[in-house]
Design a protein that fits this description.
Mean pLDDT: 91
CATH topology of the domain at 4-150 and 185-219 and 287-307: Rossmann fold
Strand order of the largest sheet: 2-1-3-4-5-10
Number of strands: 12
CATH superfamily of the domain at 4-150 and 185-219 and 287-307: NAD(P)-binding Rossmann-like Domain
Distance between the termini: 35 Å
Low-confidence stretches: none
Order of helices and strands: EHEHEHEHEEHEEEHEEHHEHH
CATH class of the domain at 4-150 and 185-219 and 287-307: Alpha Beta
Number of helices: 10
Radius of gyration: 20 Å
Structural class: alpha/beta
Largest sheet: 6 strands, parallel
Oligomer: single chain
Shape: globular
Amino acid sequence: MKPRLLITGANGQVGWRLQSMLVSLGDVTALTREHLDLGDLDAVTRTLHDLHPDVVVNAGAYTAVDKAESEPDLALAVNALAPGRMAEELARTGGLLLHYSTDYIFDGTKLSPYVETDSPAPLNVYGLTKLKGERLISASGCDHLILRTTWVYDTRGKNFLRTVLRLAREKEELRMVGDQVGAPTWASAIAEATASILVKSLSQRGTKGQPVKGVYHLTAAGQTSWAGFAKAIIDDYRTEYQAGQEDFDLVMRSIHSEAGPEFSQPLRAQLVTPIRTEEYPTPARRPRYSVLSNAKVQTAFGVKMSDWREQLRLALRTAIRG
């Protein structure tokens, strides 16, 4: 019998991509925030009780990092108490929880990629609530996989990639933070890796030698700054846009693609100027260094994440050329 899989946050960047990636693994139910508000803990319990999933892939989260500073209770409910409630229910039924966490549980003072056993020290409310979620899941005793990722973007939704493209259509110069370093990671790459991890976990679950529980880092390889990411977005967009303009059919496909018509428009921006974090103050402090090591997930599941620049090029090519 096929396992029953429940995806939360189905309209989010990763959640939306997961729907097509996981459909071959079992019977998938994908719930958006309108179907399941993770801020309503009773609704979380009720939903899991009614659907009785074998696997919950929790892609829902409170991700407004700056807004979380003024809404700590809501961020805590969505990022910690809700996954904790899921874990309690799955511990009772024997289900598996796959949950996404973040590089923001670290303070960014390390000068080499963070490994799973490094001590967390969040700088902001968002990071604190995600860390609390990890700990509640672990304490529940349920079978779980926690995947920490970084700087997630997609060609749909609200994210850095789309913000840069919007600004690049409006301005000739973009000023972007150049002293925060991380690994931009495409939501589609996360979803694809998640599918591979679940295939192996479900096939060998409970057998000797295969860890079912645990924390794993899952990010693109390589590293860059926000300014470097912005420059790469503009450069790679122009390359793919120019190639697309040579074929009218490609242009028409781009206009009507899932990514939206903005991926068929030229850019004005000619320069990306790196600035210091202090020149762009935000309510929430960010870690200066957010690179995570993928060594553990590669050893355990054979998942090798491609370089962030390769992911970006593929994401833009898919959006522009279809």
